[in-house]
Each structure stands twice: as C-alpha cells, then as structure tokens.
Design a protein that fits this description.
mainly beta, twelve-stranded antiparallel beta sheet, three-stranded antiparallel beta sheet, elongated
Length: 338
C-alpha cells in the first residue's frame, strides 16, 4: 500500500509546568519559558480540518528529519544543528533524536463524570480467582501418555509380519479405458490467458489485482487522511492508497479433448482383456487403468491382496499355493508363489 503525502499542518504541545498550549515549532513554553520535554505528545490544532502550512521554511524543517535534544541541557534543536541553541553544547555526540512516525491521536476532550452513587450497604469483596484444579495437570499427563502409547501400539502392530501358507480362493480383475472426443468447450479467463484462435464473447472489465504504483486501466482508491508526527512539531498529512487494476475478462470457446465415456471390462479368471473400442474420427483413447484382486484362504481366515502387476496376477490361478506376509492388522504386505 502506497502512502501519499497531502501536505503539512502545525501541531501543538502542552507545557507540563503551566498547561499552556504552544505551537509545535516553538521549543520553549510561550507562557513560563519551560523547555519542551523530550517525551511531549503533539496534538492537532483542529481535529476536524487540515489547515495546510504554506510557509516553505516550516515544510523544509518537517522534511529534514526529527529534532534532537541537547545531551547537556535538554533543549530541542533542529535535526541538522551542530551546537545547542541554548547552551552551545556539542550535538554531534550524545544528542537524542525525537521519536517520529507515530500517528498523531486526536485530542481527547475530558467528559464530566457523574457522581458515584453512595452504597446503601457494604458490598461483598470480589470472589478470589479459583485455583486450577489439581486433577487438570494429571489429566493432561494421562492424555499424553495415552496418545504416545497408542502411537507405539499402532506402529508396532504395523511392523509385525507373519508368514502363512495360503491357497488362492478367487481372483478378480477390472480394466477401464477413457474415451475422449475433440469438441467445443466453453470457459472464461483473463484476456491474456485465452488460447490463440479461441472465439471470445461477453467480455467485461473486472478488478484483477491491487498495485502500489500506477498501472494502465487502474483507478486510485485512498483511505481517510491521517497525520504523522515528523518529530519537528509539524505533522505530515498522508493517505494510504492503492491502484485497483482492471482487466478484460471474457468467455470463450475452444476445441479440447474431453472425456465422454469410460469403458469397463471385468472377470473372475487370470486372463484379463481390454474392453473393445470403436472410435469415431474425432475420438481417441485416454487414460487406462487396471486393478487385480487375489483372495487367499489360510487356516480358516480370508485375506485380500490388490495389485497392478498383471504378470504376478496370472500366476494366481484358483487353488495355487502361495506364501503371504501378513502384518499385525491382518493386511497382506507381500505374496510369493510357493
């Protein structure tokens, strides 16, 4: 977000000694002569308007940087001063620059306070905060132990492996093929992303992104003005602005390969085949997938193994003997013909 400078306004500060309000550029109280304190807060003269300064010297002072306080007498001096205007002390070593860059708050007008009603009876003292129950930390520790124990149990079971003699009870296979057609597809995008040769229509200008600097086809949008403390008693009036960049957004028609059908072939033997395809001139074969499932029986238990290895699947004819590896959850992790 870019910050735009609208101009400069004079601020005021309140003397700690006598309460007099003084112009921001004045370094000593106009009433009692007390020096401006280092941590004094500046305020706007008129919180409802911005009366911009025309004096070029004051503007240059605001732009030169924050004032600095003499390390010997505390007097406020200009940013480029070499010696103190009050005591002549050296400002090149030990001088402290005033804080700058903060947003100047509006002066707060104190509101008259209503008198507090007198209590007709003594009020009870507020109840003390309840201490943390002793069982709460114990419960947290128990939950942590439970989570760790579950993780150890889960991974130990997954890592367990037992070999079993097994017999193939059933086989199943499924092969699928996608059919794609070259046809018109309607989409929408920014004009510079539309493929060459596409037929565009229904174009309109839309907000695409925000930029800190000017761009063609952009509109500047700014927030409310506010005042920044320059550290000199002069306020810098600024606005936070962005450029809302607009671009052409269009609907368009283009030719693309689109999935129009999925052909499937399945069986319960070990000889799998692909589904028959009769393609038109504007069609082609898309993605093809194959899944093979072998069901084993061992000691009265049934296990299922899924694979994409067709050569391995062809060996698993019904009744053949295999050695299977089973983990602690009863899942097959490996198979091998016996």
């Amino acid at each position: 977000m870019a910050r735009k400078v609208l101009g400069y306004i004079e601020l005021v500060w309140t003397c700690d000694s006598c309460g007099t309000k003084n112009p921001g550029a004045i370094r000593s109280c106009t009433s009692c002569g007390a020096p401006q304190p280092f941590g004094v807060k500046f305020e706007r003269v008129d919180p409802d308007t911005f009366n911009f300064i025309k004096d070029e010297a004051l503007i240059r002072m605001a732009q030169s940087g924050p004032d600095k306080h003499c390390p010997f007498c505390g007097t406020r001096n200009l940013a480029d001063a070499q010696v103190c205007v009050q005591c002549g002390g050296d400002l090149t070593v030990g001088a402290t620059s005033r804080p700058a860059g903060a947003v100047v708050e509006e002066p707060v007008v104190p509101q008259p306070q209503k008198p507090m009603p007198q209590p007709v009876a003594a009020t009870a003292s507020p109840a003390p905060a309840k201490p943390t129950p002793k069982w709460l930390p114990i419960l947290g520790i128990l939950l942590l132990i439970l989570c760790v124990s579950f993780g150890v149990w889960y991974f130990s079971r997954a890592a367990q492996s037992e070999s079993h003699e097994a017999t193939v009870a059933q086989t199943y296979w499924l092969r699928q093929v996608q059919i794609e057609a070259y046809q018109v597809v309607r989409e929408a995008d920014w004009s510079d992303n539309i493929p060459a040769g596409a037929n565009t229509y229904n174009c309109s200008m839309r907000h695409r992104y925000d930029s800190d600097s000017y761009r063609p086809e952009s509109t500047e949008v700014c927030g409310e003005p506010y005042t920044i403390d320059t550290g000199t008693g002069i306020g810098e009036v600024v606005q936070d602005c962005v450029y809302r960049v607009y671009d052409e957004y269009c609907s368009y028609d283009t030719m693309q390969w689109v999935v129009i059908d999925t052909l499937s072939q399945e069986g319960y033997n070990t000889t799998a085949s692909w589904p028959a395809r009769n393609l038109a001139n504007d069609q082609r074969i898309g993605n093809a997938t194959e899944t093979y499932i072998i069901t084993f029986q061992s000691g009265g238990d049934e296990y299922t193994y899924r694979t994409k290895d067709y050569d391995l699947f062809q060996q698993a004819y019904e009744g053949s003997q295999w050695v299977i590896e089973v983990n602690g959850f009863g899942d097959i992790t490996a198979i091998e013909p016996d």
